[in-house]
Amino acid sequence: MKGLTCCSVAASSQHKAADGKSHLPQLGRFAWAKCSPPTLILALLPKCPACLAAYVALGTGISLSVAAASVLRTLLISACVVTLGWVFVGAVRLDLRRSN
Hints:
The protein has 100 residues and is mainly α. It has one domain. The chain has helices spanning 6-14, 26-44, 49-60, 66-99. It is elongated, with a radius of gyration of 21 Å.
């Protein structure tokens, strides 16, 4: 016979609203859609600048030097990290505003 564990009881009580339906927290709903594109770019971005240059050449027909690909890679990483930080700070501020 399976019983409820302490983890399942705690998890189910955190996501239940007053009407008894399961809802995601406000922070999760706000940030999920806005975090997806930068997270996807960071996950698919190659670690090697030469590979990035090859992907750009295959996708667009424009050739890049390895130095230019390295700069482009650094700019993409910086833009994605700044975007994720901005979305996180906005979500936290919105969550704090709603809780007050």
